[in-house]
Design a protein that fits this description.
It is globular and about 85 Å long. A hairpin with a 2-residue loop joins strand 9 and strand 10. Helix 3 packs antiparallel against helix 5. The chain has a 24-stranded antiparallel beta sheet that branches. With 470 residues, the protein is α+β, with helices and mostly antiparallel strands. The chain has 10 helices and 24 strands.
Length: 470
């Protein structure tokens, strides 16, 4: 007898909806928990940032900042600060009200992954000033947005809209500024661009071309006051015309470079370059000034900079009290411990024989380039005591005898004569003294090239090895 066929009922297919809902609930709970965690982290991060910002601003002696509140929420928070700007030659200080609108992570504002997004709003406390500000920007607002990453790194984008303002018969029109500042660990990178502005009025008119600022600074740790890095500030052009006279400047650049020459010493160089400077009937081209300070002992230098910052903060704190203006603006007295440390650090710098260098001072005339280089040091000060150093501060004549200065100058005779004649007067008359100086050996002439070496040692100046006055 055959076995009957057994027909199994079809299994009912399970709906994925419960699993999806469960996953959504778990995810939502995780995000909510993470948001709460990041809310706490963000408050700590933003308050630490505010403390660093207020500390650096207060150290300027011109700007004071203070956090006035922090309202913490689940998904968003608000931080408020006041900033007072009071230059010494100004009357009533200008007060700014700064509000940071914070959206917490891990998905702040659904615009990325991070601890938070901070939108900064800046307003003038004075209503009339704020109204003028809004009119100048035609109702548009500058925007500052900062993304705080999961690791605490920050990326800030800055946009200042173009605008126009007219006052006392003069009109100033400017284009929009854009930039970004990123902080990753102890490294800060800055990149700002501004197309420029124009000014017109009854007294004349002026124009500023494109401006850029780029820089990168790295600090070894929180105690590193100086750091290492590079920065470059450029102005494409400047032009000002008044009373029929025009001053024109093209391709100006200021750059800085600080680095460790070895693990214990800093080298720093600042370079100024002007492609062209024209005023009246004068025209100077390719003007360059490169200054350096080398072999600065790192640890004592950092302590000295820290002491300067402490004094600036103390002065700012004094200005907040009810003391008189004279008392508030005076430099605070050093404590005995600070005076002792100051003397020791100054000696530590001198013992490592730092040098001030003139890497280049030059300009170009039709007849060629004029170049000056040199350096200055004070090696005999390396063996001094704190007491001897204190005595020298009251004896500048003795201090001068301890300096070693070496300068070298070179130019074609035509270029030098052109430069002296450019300014006329007594400078032009110096051209007539060149031949006697060549004959006496103070200036060496080879073909059309002139060369002179100035040395100052033990209080005695020499020119090409000949004592001046001989």
């Amino acid at each position: 007898m055959s076995r009957p066929n057994t027909v199994r009922p079809a299994q009912k297919r399970r709906s994925p909806l419960p699993a999806v809902l469960l996953s959504a609930v778990v995810t939502a709970g995780a995000v909510a928990g993470a948001t709460a965690v990041f809310s706490g982290r963000t408050q700590q991060t933003t308050e630490e940032f505010a403390q660093k910002l207020t500390s650096s601003l207060n150290a300027s002696g011109v700007v004071t900042a203070q956090q006035t509140g922090y309202q913490k929420g689940f998904a968003s928070s608000t931080q408020t600060m006041t900033v007072n700007i009071a230059p010494e030659d100004a009357g009533k200080p200008v007060q700014l009200l700064v509000t940071n609108h914070i959206k917490h992570g891990p998905f702040p504002g659904m615009r990325g992954v991070g601890q938070a997004i901070v939108d900064t709003d800046i307003r003038f406390a004075d209503a009339q000033t704020q109204a003028q500000f809004e009119r100048a920007f035609a109702g548009k607002k500058p925007t500052i947005r900062t993304l705080i990453g999961l690791g605490g790194d920050t990326s800030t984008q800055i946009e200042v809209p173009g605008g126009r303002v007219t006052e006392d018969g003069s009109t100033m029109t400017w284009q929009a500024l854009q930039g970004d500042v990123t902080v990753s660990g102890q490294t800060t990178t800055t990149n700002l661009t501004w197309p420029g502005l124009k000014i017109t009025g009854a007294d004349g008119q002026g124009e500023l071309g494109a401006v850029t600022l780029k820089g990168r600074t790295h600090r070894q740790n929180e105690q590193d006051q100086l750091g290492t890095g590079t920065s470059t500030f450029k102005i494409a052009s400047m032009k000002f015309t008044s009373a029929g006279q025009t001053v024109r400047l093209n391709n100006m650049e200021v750059s800085g470079d600080s680095r460790l020459s070895d693990p214990e010493h800093y080298d720093g160089v600042v370079k100024y370059t002007i492609g062209e400077l024209a005023f009246a009937d004068k025209n100077l081209k390719n003007v360059q000034l490169h200054l350096g300070v080398r072999h600065l002992a790192r640890e004592p230098l950092n302590r000295l900079l820290g002491l300067v910052n402490d004094m600036q903060r103390a002065s700012t704190q004094a200005s907040r009290t009810q003391a008189s203006r004279t008392q508030a603006s005076s430099t605070p007295d050093l404590t005995p411990a600070q005076e002792k440390q100051l003397g020791q650090d100054m000696l530590a710098l001198l013992k490592d024989s730092p040098r001030l260098t003139l890497d280049r001072l030059s300009l170009t005339q039709p007849g060629g380039e004029i170049l000056l280089t040199g350096q200055a040091s004070a090696p005999r000060m390396a063996t001094m005591t704190v007491q001897q150093l204190e005595l020298l501060t009251d004896q500048p004549a003795v201090l001068a005898t301890m300096a070693d200065i070496h300068l070298e100058a070179g130019a074609s005779e035509q270029a030098l004569t052109e430069l002296l004649g450019l300014f006329g007067g007594r400078l032009a008359d110096l051209g007539g003294t060149l031949q006697p100086m060549i004959e006496q050996g103070y200036v060496v002439k080879q073909g059309d090239q002139l060369r002179a070496v100035l040395d100052f040692k033990d209080g005695t100046p020499t020119l090409n090895g000949k004592a001046l006055g001989d």
